[in-house]
Amino acid sequence: MEIRRDVYLNRLIVRKHNGFIKVITGIRRCGKSYLLNKLFYNHLRDTGVDADHIIMFAFDSADDLVKIEEDPLLLDNDKENRKVNPTKFLKYVSSQIKDEGMYYLLLDEVQKLGAFESVLNGFLRKNNTDVFVTGSNSRFLSKDILTEFEGRGDEIHVLPLSFSEFYGAYEGSKEEAYDEYSLYGGLPAVALMKTEEQKAVYLTTQMKNVYLKDLLVRYNLQSDVAIGELTDVIASGISSLTNPKKLSATFASVKQTTISDVTIGKYIGYMEDAFLICRVKRYDVKGRKYIGTPYKVYFEDIGLRNAQLNFRQTEATHIMENILYNELRFRGYNVDVGVVESREKDEFGKEVRKQLEIDFVATLGSKKYYIQSAYAITDEKKYKQETKPFGKTGDSFKKIILVEQSMKPRRDENGYVCMGVKEFLLDANSLDI
């Protein structure tokens, strides 16, 4: 079964011939290679590009390495330090370019190529090569791409399957699909598995043997105990405000383990670099400035988060919030946690200042949306509590409340929109209803 990833495919298509190196980033196993080598390749062929004008090369493929007379065994025995010889690779590419027509280079796991920055920048100086690459190395972050490629890198960040992508390949109702997605997440391989046992074992194994192991190797960490326990604590507290000092205190009181806030801060950075988690800062809506700490942390894939906790802590409210955060990113929005100030009188009649939270402030160019992940609105009091921060923003940008119960969009007297989360996730235009 083919899982459609039209959003990302279109992001590649509109970047063709733009004079940049197109760099596809994302957590391991999220579908980067499938997007490049299957979906984008098929697009090129369907639009009339001859197969001999598409040069595909995977730097982690033994078959491809043999083409350039590299010994796969030598590279495999020293995965972290040994790189593919760039001279051999360039010689191979030159042998494939036989005329002045446009050639498309689809290069997988390019961080395994020696001097890859210089090699790829060299292709930009040719008039008939258009370069698309994937990479899993921590150097393939948006903050580094402009430096690595001398300002000529263009990032397409790929997330695991969104709920709409997942539902497109799911056989069942949207309620059943959401329940499954909330538990096992959106890694493409998991979405295609048939049994719950398969899904749980795969996610648990990948979390331990791929994602956390990557961190140990990449950053020369001596033990997986500390970072594993930190991942446990972060996974337990998704959608809650935290910071390294608070996490350090949690280790001391709950784990009876001492780990400094400085070390915790570094480890969180490592997990961000590996695209395992995202750190979301608070934004003062009226003051139009960011607030330092505390911040919130969300997982790139909710299934990996659940697997880290052995599927024991599956709080529907926090999971829904994590899913919504990833959905907004999938749609291309920058996402912050909103903070608005309220002046109220306490029980003694004294005026006090309070900070009210808006779960998400989503911005894209001139567009801005305020979104509350309420899960359930049980009565009028709860509704007023959730919408109270909206009235303090002082602007007219759209304000949306999302609940778990299936519900068509409805608008109240203040113009606030309330709708079900599944309806929101499955409608690409739901922000503009």
Kindly estimate the percentage of residues that lie in beta strands according to DSSP.
Answer: 15-25%
Please tell me what the overall shape is.
globular
Tell me the number of helical segments per DSSP (H or I, 4 or more residues long): 18
Structural class: alpha/beta
Backbone CA Rg: 24 Å
Task: Please summarize the sheet with the most strands.
Answer: 8 strands, mixed
Q: Any low-confidence stretches, pLDDT <50, length ≥5?
A: none
Measured between the Cα atoms of the first and last residue, the distance is 32 Å
Please estimate the helix content. Answer: 40-55%
Strand order of the largest sheet: 7-6-8-9-10-11-13-12
Number of strands: 13
Fold blueprint:
Elements: H1 6-13, E1 21-25, H2 32-46, E2 54-58, H3 62-67, H4 72-77, H5 86-96, E3 103-108, H6 116-124, E4 129-134, H7 142-148, E5 153-157, H8 163-168, H9 174-184, H10 188-191, H11 196-218, H12 225-236, H13 244-255, H14 261-273, E6 277-284, E7 289-299, H15 302-308, H16 316-330, E8 334-345, E9 351-364, E10 367-375, H17 380-387, E11 398-403, E12 410-411, E13 417-420, H18 421-426
Parallel strand pairs: 1-4, 1-5, 2-3, 3-4, 6-8, 10-11, 11-13
Antiparallel strand pairs: 6-7, 8-9, 9-10, 12-13
